[in-house]
Write a structure and sequence with these properties.
The longest helix is centred in the first third of the chain and has 47 residues. Strand 18 and strand 19 form a beta hairpin. This protein is α/β, with parallel strands linked by helices. Helices cover 56% and strands 18% of the residues. Helix 5 packs antiparallel against helix 6.
């Protein structure tokens, strides 16, 4: 490309470095298309050229200028920026005016092919991109000249010359920038940094070309004189450029030496060598190869830190053939310079490698090779003086171990575990994954301190290794979470139970016998199903949380219990917005006194209507709220809505008490009593018009804290009910301590009364228990008149269920209530009339 190539001092600019990737193949195809399109275009143009200066001689001059521009660019530094200045636009404008279009393009293509393909041996993609930019430049110039320039050259043709140069410059830089963008996969604004300077250089070259053409028109021999003057000036500037380049090289070397000396003291020598070598050589990549038994590659990660990785096959070949003399190699895919930095008698060695020079004007040359050799010499001295080779070996081993093992227990960590699982799955095995989470571990930390908690984790890890043994791999994934990977004909569930038994044995910590349990999730690879390691671990994680929720030792993954789907995850943000916007609503299910038929209460049930007309089931969004920290704002919204509705009905003298449910998360929230009291005060609702329902499991999940919150709620004056009674595991001792006023029989017992005598016995027992404890009893799930009659016979007078009404939105509830009261009044009047008729007879 004519003009300049910008290379910022101290930082390399990424360019079209060849890679065997789909993007490089696409780029090669695009560049080849540009070349073909340019050739086809100029072949269709008419011949144009000036007479009076032999066409063969002019062709030779133009080709010479093109060749000179490509093989001998001037290296100029301006404002801390290094520029390779090429006066190729002189040849481009001359060719556009003095040669036939096809000849001009062919000459440009031939010179570029020789300079970049045969001489510089550029990689295929970079070569094609350069050929495309040059042919486009030449083609655009000939097109503009052919369209705008007059037949006779003179001042009237000068604007066409400058416009041709500008358009050609734009075409060439656009081709290069497009190629870089395709190769990188993104647009980099830094590519425009040198375009201004190159544009000025190209316009200056156009001026020179105009002078040459003018002299050709006036007197052809004078053109030779001008070319001689230009050549002398070029040689002078080039001589100065070489002196300046040597000066900059000395500065680079001095900077490298100083930086390396400081880095050796700081322990960052490896990073300094890689970073400085890449910057000084304007290389896209640089790394160190280390052979100490095994071959490793040391490079920088995205954070700029030294990262270890196994050496590739190409790296191993470089280590084998490297020497103390730097070598430039081109394999058709990339260009590299490598040089041995250090070696010893044991065969350990370090090699510096730089690859793919940034920019499009030139690749690495002999000067770069000499510079790499010098850098390697200085780096080698530093390594030898401080025995950095041994430290590199230790750093590699330590970094590898730190990256794959837990610092506390010494067990493999999550990275190691997942890699091992990946290998097992790749081998076609069907592994099982056990995920273990300790119960009550936080109590140990809070009571005995984190140091003793760490001792407990170490002992648990040792026990797991003893149980699993050679049958699998044990890892600590983090916190109090462990994992085991087992392969082969092993009963994974039996192994999980043995692990649970081992964990439950007391651990002696700080003269205290500590007992912790474990919740274990088990996931087994399904037969004939492709599954990733991440999916298998996630399944074990889901099973583990199910075990923790069920308070069981071991749970195996079941898709039916997988509530952690991506769809559920997407609902979190939507639920947060719905709460903030007040989009959730309450429906109310009537509660009936079966003896009188009167409506004395209503249970508030949260509903989430979606904009698409779909309703999200309560179990789904309440579960999400409980596991994402949204349960508090959700509960506050439900309390506000329920209390406000109860206040409206109270003002209408409906005599309807409203019940609402609290979850286990609410009962350990000390602010809940204040939230309810504030809502009652704001609405002006008597506390007796609100009933708070709690499940047995909710209370027993944390009985101490729950009892404190319950007592504060009772002190406010609200009623308290135990919901779904009979399905939990509360004891009568706790029940007698709770200041509750009502028991609600779970619908599962009520609905089975017609078919299961056992269910009837359970209901009778609960009714008798409520009577003996002086508690009201209400039956849920009453769906027909037979069940209602049976409940009355057992002494249960209060009920709710579909037999009376499904949950209704407030206005529908009020309509139903009015209709129900009217029917009740009509029935009452009918009964009175019937009694009067019988008395009269």
């Amino acid at each position: 490309m004519s003009g300049t190539e910008s290379e910022p001092t101290g930082a390399s600019t990424d360019a079209v470095a060849e890679r065997a990737t789909p993007s490089s193949r696409a780029l090669s195809a695009l560049a080849a298309f540009w070349v073909a399109l340019s050739i086809a275009t100029v072949l269709a143009l008419p011949h144009r050229g000036l007479d009076g200066f032999g066409s063969a001689a002019m062709l030779a001059i133009v080709c010479g200028l093109m060749l000179l521009a490509e093989v001998a660019p001037l290296d100029v530094e301006m404002r801390q920026e290094s520029y390779l200045v090429s006066f190729g636009m002189v040849a481009t404008v001359l060719a556009a005016f003095l040669l036939a279009p096809a000849v001009a393009v062919a000459a440009r293509l031939a010179v570029s092919l020789w300079a970049y393909g045969l001489r510089a041996r550029q990689p295929t993609t970079k070569l094609l991109v350069n050929l495309a930019s040059h042919t486009l430049e030449m083609t655009i110039a000939t097109l503009v000249v052919g369209a705008l320039a007059p037949a006779q050259f003179g001042p009237a043709a000068w604007p066409a010359a400058y416009l041709a140069a500008a358009c050609a410059h734009l075409a060439a830089t656009t081709a290069i920038d497009t190629a870089i963008t395709v190769a990188q996969g993104r647009w980099d604004p830094g590519m425009l940094s040198g375009n201004g300077v190159s544009f000025v250089v190209d316009l200056s070259g156009t001026t020179v070309a105009i002078l040459v053409i003018t002299l050709v028109e006036v007197h052809a021999a004078a053109a030779w004189l001008q070319l001689a003057v230009g050549a002398g000036l070029f040689l002078a500037v080039r001589s100065y450029s070489r002196v300046a380049a040597r000066y900059r090289g000395t500065k680079h070397l001095d900077h490298f030496t100083r930086r390396l000396s400081a880095a050796v003291i700081d322990g960052n020598a490896v990073r300094a060598i890689v970073v400085e070598a890449a910057d000084i050589l304007h290389a896209d990549r640089a790394w160190l190869l280390v052979r100490d038994g095994e071959a490793h590659r040391l490079t920088l990660d995205e954070a700029g830190e030294v990262a270890w990785s196994p050496a590739t096959a190409d790296d191993a070949e470089i280590l084998d053939r490297s020497s103390e003399r730097a070598v430039l190699e081109l394999d058709g895919e990339s260009e590299t310079i490598h040089c041995r930095v250090a070696t010893d008698e044991q065969g350990r060695s370090v090699v510096l490698v730089v690859a793919d020079r940034s920019g499009s004007v030139r690749g690495f040359d002999d000067g770069d090779v000499r510079l790499v050799q010098t850098l390697a010499t200085h780096a080698g001295l530093a390594i030898q003086n401080l025995e950095l080779l041994d430290r590199l070996r230790d750093q590699v081993a330590q970094a590898e171990h730190r990256a794959t093992h837990d610092a506390l227990t010494g067990l493999p960590n999550r990275v190691h575990f997942q890699r091992s699982l990946d290998r097992v799955l790749a081998d076609g095995e069907q592994p099982a994954v056990l995920l273990l989470d300790l119960d009550r571990f936080r109590d140990v930390n809070d009571t005995l301190g984190h140091h003793n908690g760490d001792l407990l984790l170490i002992e648990i890890g040792r026990r797991l290794v003893d149980i699993v043994g050679d049958a699998g791999l044990v890892a600590r994934l983090g916190g109090d979470e462990f994992a085991a990977l087992v392969v082969g004909a092993i009963d994974a569930r039996a192994l999980a139970l043995r692990v649970a038994a081992a964990v439950e044995r007391p651990v002696r910590v700080s003269d205290v016998d500590v007992e912790v349990g474990a919740s274990i999730g088990l996931a087994v690879t399904p037969p004939d199903v492709d599954i990733t390691s991440g999916a298998l671990i996630r399944q074990a994680d889901v099973a583990m949380y199910n075990a923790k929720s069920d308070r069981s030792l071991v749970e195996q993954y079941s898709p039916d219990r997988d509530t952690y789907s991506p769809e559920r995850l997407s609902l979190v943000g939507q639920l947060r917005q719905a709460i903030d916007r007040g989009e959730l609503v309450l429906h109310y299910q009537p509660q009936i006194d079966m003896c009188t038929g009167e409506v004395y209460g209503a249970e508030a049930l949260a509903r989430w209507p979606r904009s698409d007309g779909r309703w999200i089931p309560p179990d789904e969004f309440i579960h999400i709220a409980e596991h994402t920290g949204l349960i508090r704002p959700l509960t506050a919204l439900v309390i506000d809505l329920a209390v406000a509705q109860a206040a409206r009905w109270h003002a209408q003298h409906r005599g309807v008490r409203v019940s609402l449910n609290l979850s286990a998360h609410n009962l350990v929230d000390p602010e809940i009593p204040t939230v309810i009291a504030d809502a009652l005060a704001a609405a002006g609702l008597p506390a007796t018009q609100l009933m708070v329902e709690l499940t047995e499991t909710t209370v027993m999940s944390n009985p101490t804290r729950a009892l404190q919150v319950i007592e504060e709620l009772r002190a406010i004056g609200v009623g308290l009910a135990i919901d779904d009674f009979g399905t939990g595991h509360s004891s009568l001792a706790y029940l007698s301590r709770l200041p509750v006023t009502e028991l609600k029989i779970d619908r599962s017992f009520v609905m089975d009364m017609a078919d299961e005598p056992t269910a009837t016995s359970i209901v009778r027992t609960i009714v008798d228990l409520g009577r003996n404890l002086e508690l009201d009893v209400i039956a849920e799930g009453v769906e027909n008149d037979d069940i209602a009659s049976s409940l009355i016979d057992l002494g249960c007078h209060h009920a709710q269920g579909f037999h009376y009404s499904r949950p209704l939105e407030p206005r529908a509830f009020e309509t139903w209530h009015a209709h129900h009261d009217a029917e009740l009044a009509a029935a009452h009047r009918g009964a009175i009339a019937s009694e009067q008729s019988i008395g009269a007879s």
